[in-house]
Amino acid sequence: MTTINPIIPGFAPDPSVTRIGDTFFLVNSTFHLFPGLPIYASKDLVNWTLINTKLEPQDDGTVMLATGGLFAPTIRHDSKSGKTYIINTNVLHPENAGDKPENFIIETDDIWSDNWSDPVYFDFDGIDPSIFWDEDGTAFICGSHGPGPMTTISLFEADLSTGKKLSEEKTVWKGTGGIYPEGPHIYKKDGFYYLLISEGGTFKDHMITVARSENIWGPYEANEKNPILTAAGTDNYVHCTGHCDMFQDKDDQWWGVCLGMRMQGSRFHMGRESFLVTGHWEQGEWPRLDTVEATSSHKFKNEVVKTNKTGLDWLYIRDANLQHHKIEGSTIRLTPSQADISQWKQPVSFVGKRQRRLDGTAAVTLVLPETGSSRAGLVIYKDEHRYTRIYYNSGDKIICFEVVNNGKKISRHDQEEISSESSDIKLLVDYTENQLVFQYEEEEGVTKTLGVVDTAELSNADFVGPVIGVFAVSDEENDEVVFRDFEHEH
């Protein structure tokens, strides 16, 4: 098999994989963007189809920061019951309180359907839960317990249908000394229980370590050759590799799927993506993983990631008011929100799709509002702290460009007056690995550049990745803003 990397490009962190028959299913984190938990399917680990997404916004009085929301899901199939499970953490931010992790399980009898159960919540003070069934059918949940950098790996027996703990929770491993021991997965092979975890944080010191025990409760002995996967201390193009899940294909070949970041100096605009790595696991031996490499990737493919249903690849910000978003083919109608994308407490009128390619173009035609005062346009969005956009301010009749990265204290703005009496205006962004060029056309074929962004300006230790979309905001109640001919190579 020829490996194509990244297998899920763009905003696709924390991958987990399970195989059902001859098909592999992969799920990612989505953090504060909705719908959550995208599920991809593949028969060859190269060509992937987005088959469904599982969680929609809900109004429950809580909000999510960019580092909140849906963390590190694990997907598992129980061959005995025929059920498929996703276990996950939703990190909320209640008013006047700290982060609040809510852990839950959802299940389905048919992964191809949209018929998933409601979430079953269980008591666990931590993140990154994973499911393991022992040979007698006993179900266990392991996860990263506690806040702060020195978390521990906890284990307990559970009833997956109710979330009830059937045993005491026990700390089974603290890792090898790296910060944030997390993302645990348990595998049983050759009479040993193997515990695979991430350490070192999810960026430049990220690494995968492993321990084993003859008893699921431990004690666990660390592999002398840890870490078995890392790019720390190297100049590898694919960096920050970690958060790995291991699995076998139908020919018993071992693989690992992990997150990584394509880094060119200080530029890593695409964020954390899903990569495939060859694994080796001989009888009685420790698992090994090869170095993660990027390939010439998907330039020969018509689509990087296919979808099998209309609209699956649209993304919204947090608790979006879906009544204010109308999508009909390439036409988008947004009722402007009073809150802008620069904040995290209120709903925002925004919809977009993940940037899947390093090089490409996105464009949309904005029908200029005849009344009211709104700001609407095209944006490359990561979170409330990092975005860049070109938009029309209908109150002042100007075209504006803006780039914001609060982490790097970057805030730039430029603007130009509209010179013609056109009824619409085309907004464009050309993007490469190195830069983003924002342009507009008042007259067809006459393109003006308003802003250029070095992708290093938007590169941070992000949880999320770039989403290209449209937005509309206003300080007053306004009629719908209409966008035509939204084009995005993805």
From TrEMBL:
The active site is at D14, E182. One of its GO terms (molecular function) is hydrolase activity, hydrolyzing O-glycosyl compounds. CDD domains: GH43_XynB-like (cd18617). Keywords: Glycosidase, Hydrolase. PANTHER family: BETA-XYLOSIDASE, BETA-XYLOSIDASE-RELATED. Belongs to the glycosyl hydrolase 43 family. This is Beta-xylosidase C-terminal Concanavalin A-like domain-containing protein.
